[in-house]
UniProtKB/TrEMBL annotation:
<feature type="domain" description="Mur ligase C-terminal">
    <location>
        <begin position="308"/>
        <end position="421"/>
    </location>
</feature>
<dbReference type="GO" id="GO:0008764">
    <property type="term" value="F:UDP-N-acetylmuramoylalanine-D-glutamate ligase activity"/>
</dbReference>
<dbReference type="GO" id="GO:0005737">
    <property type="term" value="C:cytoplasm"/>
</dbReference>
<keyword id="KW-0067">ATP-binding</keyword>
<feature type="domain" description="Mur ligase central">
    <location>
        <begin position="107"/>
        <end position="286"/>
    </location>
</feature>
<keyword id="KW-0547">Nucleotide-binding</keyword>
<dbReference type="Pfam" id="PF08245">
    <property type="entry name" value="Mur_ligase_M"/>
</dbReference>
<dbReference type="InterPro" id="IPR004101">
    <property type="entry name" value="Mur_ligase_C"/>
</dbReference>
<dbReference type="InterPro" id="IPR036565">
    <property type="entry name" value="Mur-like_cat_sf"/>
</dbReference>
<dbReference type="GO" id="GO:0051301">
    <property type="term" value="P:cell division"/>
</dbReference>
<keyword id="KW-0133">Cell shape</keyword>
<dbReference type="InterPro" id="IPR036615">
    <property type="entry name" value="Mur_ligase_C_dom_sf"/>
</dbReference>
<dbReference type="GO" id="GO:0008360">
    <property type="term" value="P:regulation of cell shape"/>
</dbReference>
<keyword id="KW-0573">Peptidoglycan synthesis</keyword>
<dbReference type="InterPro" id="IPR005762">
    <property type="entry name" value="MurD"/>
</dbReference>
<dbReference type="Pfam" id="PF21377">
    <property type="entry name" value="MurD_N"/>
</dbReference>
<dbReference type="InterPro" id="IPR013221">
    <property type="entry name" value="Mur_ligase_cen"/>
</dbReference>
Length: 444
C-alpha cells in the first residue's frame, strides 16, 4: 500500500487526504500549526491519521509521496530533507489531476485570477455544462475529484501550487498578468516568480490553448523565453489582433477557432479596464468549450463580481465605503485607485511582501487626501508616502481605522480599504479583514 503524507491540515490538505484514502493510499496528515476543529472532524470521519502542532520526522520520511499545502515554503528544512531523500513533494493540483478525466481550465496570474475563475465558472454553468469551481478559491480540487468528479473544472491556481506540479496539464491555461508579488517566497527574484507562473503551460501540447494578456510586457518577454507548445490565444485592450480578443468601436471582438463573437463593452456588469480583460479571458475559454454566444452575452450582464474585490459596502453622509480587502499586492491596489473618480481616504497596510509602492505615487498624489495605516509595522508605507500626503494616521485595529476614516471623510469622498499587503498580522485572512471592515461600517 502506497504511503501518502499530507503536510498542512487546511482545505487543500484535508481534500487531498480524502482523495488519497479513496484511492487506496495509507494517509497521514501532519500540521506544524493547530488544525481547525472542522477539519479534525472530517479527518476523524474518514478515519485518517493526523498530528497537529508538530511534524514527526519518522512518520513523514516513510512517505512514498508528499503533498505540500501551498502555504508551506520550499525553503522549510523538512521540505528540503524530503527532496534530498528523493521523496516526491507535489501540490494538490498534481495529486488530484491523476484521478480525474475532466477538462481543466487553469487560471493563474498576479491579479484578476479569482474574478476570471469565477466568471469562467459562471459562463460554463449558465451554458449547462457540468463544471466545478475549485483550487485557490472555495473548495479543494482534490475533495471535488473524490466526492463528485465534474466534466470540467475552472481552477484558480497560485504560483505556489504550480511550483509543485510535474505532469499536471490544463487543456486551457489562462495567465491574466504578472506583476511583482510573493517575492519573499522567491528569494526576492522576480524572474523566479515569472518562471513559476509559466509552469502552467509546461505540459501543454499543440491540442491545448494558452490565453494571455498581450499588453503585459512581462508575459511578452516570457513568451520568448519559455517553450510553449499550445495554441497561443492573446487578448488586448490596446491593439487589434488577428486572433483572440480585442476592442474595436466600444465592442469586444473575439475570434477563435473559426468562431466570432461581438459584444458591446456597455453590457459588462463589472467596471474598470482590468475587468474588460478578465471578461475577455473568460469569454475566450467559454467559446473554446462551446458555450453558446448568446449565453456568454447574457451571463456577462448578470455576473456580480467577487466579494472583497472593489465591493461597494454603504454610502453614509454622501461618503462611499469600498471594500477591496482582496487587494493583497500593489498592482491590485493600482486598479482600485485608478478606477475611483472621487477624493480617496485610503486604508492600507498589513504584512508587506517586499512591495514597491513607487508605481502608486502618481495616483496617490492625484487622488488620495489621507492615508490610514492599518498594520503592526507601517514603516514602509510611511517612508513611501510620508512626504506626499499631509494627513497620515496609524491604526492597529479595524474598528479604529474605520472610526478615523469616518471622521476624516467629507461629502463626496470615497473611503477605500485596499491594503496592498497580506492580512496575517491582524486578521485570519483577507476575508476576515473585509468582513470586519463591513461590520464596523454598519456600526457607524
Amino acid at each position: 500500500m502506497k504511503r501518502l503524507v499530507v503536510l498542512g491540515g487546511g482545505e487543500s490538505g484535508v481534500g487531498t487526504a480524502i482523495l488519497g484514502k479513496k484511492e487506496g493510499y495509507q494517509v497521514f496528515v501532519s500540521d506544524k500549526g493547530e488544525i481547525q476543529p472542522k477539519y479534525k472532524e472530517v479527518l476523524e470521519h474518514f478515519e485518517i491519521e493526523w498530528e497537529s502542532g508538530k511534524h514527526s520526522g519518522d512518520r513523514v520520511f516513510q512517505a512514498d509521496v508528499v503533498m505540500k499545502s501551498p502555504g508551506i515554503p520550499d525553503r522549510v528544512p523538512l521540505v528540503k530533507q524530503l527532496k534530498e531523500k528523493g521523496i516526491p513533494v507535489i501540490s494538490e493540483m498534481e495529486f488530484a489531476s491523476q484521478f480525474s478525466e475532466a477538462t481543466v481550465i487553469g487560471i493563474t496570474g498576479s491579479n484578476g485570477k479569482t474574478t476570471t475563475t469565477m466568471l469562467t465558472h459562471h459562463l460554463l454553468k449558465n451554458g449547462r455544462l457540468n463544471v466545478g469551481l475549485a483550487g485557490n478559491i472555495g473548495d479543494s480540487y482534490a475533495k471535488m475529484v473524490a466526492e463528485k468528479d465534474f466534466d470540467l473544472y475552472a481552477l484558480e491556481i497560485s504560483s505556489f501550487q504550480l511550483d509543485g506540479i510535474q505532469q499536471f496539464k490544463p487543456h486551457i491555461a489562462i495567465l491574466t498578468n504578472i506583476t511583482p508579488d510573493h517575492l519573499d517566497r522567491y528569494d526576492n527574484q522576480f524572474e523566479k516568480y515569472v518562471a513559476s507562473k509559466f509552469r502552467i503551460t509546461m505540459n501543454q501540447t499543440e491540442n491545448d490553448f494558452f490565453i494571455y494578456d498581450a499588453d503585459d510586457p512581462v508575459i511578452a518577454e516570457g513568451l520568448k523565453k519559455f517553450p510553449i507548445q499550445s495554441k497561443l490565444v492573446p487578448f488586448s485592450i490596446k491593439q487589434k489582433l488577428e486572433t483572440g480578443a480585442w476592442i474595436e468601436d466600444n465592442k469586444i471582438i473575439i475570434e477563435i477557432e473559426h468562431k466570432t463573437l461581438e459584444m458591446s463593452t456597455d453590457i459588462l456588469a463589472l467596471e474598470g479596464q482590468h475587468n474588460l480583460k478578465n471578461t475577455m479571458a473568460a469569454s475566450l475559454a467559454a467559446l473554446l468549450v462551446n458555450v453558446r454566444k448568446e449565453t456568454i452575452r447574457q451571463s456577462i450582464q448578470t455576473f456580480q463580481g467577487v466579494p472583497h474585490r472593489l465591493e461597494k459596502v454603504l454610502k453614509i453622509n454622501h461618503v462611499e465605503y469600498i471594500n477591496d480587502s482582496k487587494a493583497t499586492n500593489v498592482n491590485a491596489t493600482y486598479y482600485a485607485l485608478d478606477g475611483i473618480k472621487k477624493p480617496i481616504v485610503w486604508i492600507v497596510g498589513g504584512v508587506d511582501k517586499g512591495n514597491d509602492y513607487s508605481e502608486l505615487m502618481p495616483l496617490v498624489r492625484e487622488k488620495v487626501k489621507a492615508i490610514i495605516c492599518l498594520g503592526m509595522d507601517n514603516t514602509r508605507i510611511k517612508d513611501a508616502f510620508g512626504n506626499v500626503i499631509e494627513l497620515m494616521v496609524e491604526t492597529y485595529s479595524m474598528q479604529e481605522a474605520v472610526k478615523v476614516a469616518y471622521k476624516i471623510a467629507e461629502r463626496g469622498d470615497s473611503v477605500l480599504l485596499s491594503p496592498s499587503c497580506a492580512s496575517f498580522d491582524l486578521f485570519e485572512n483577507y476575508e476576515d479583514r473585509g468582513n470586519q471592515f463591513k461590520e464596523e461600517i454598519k456600526r457607524l
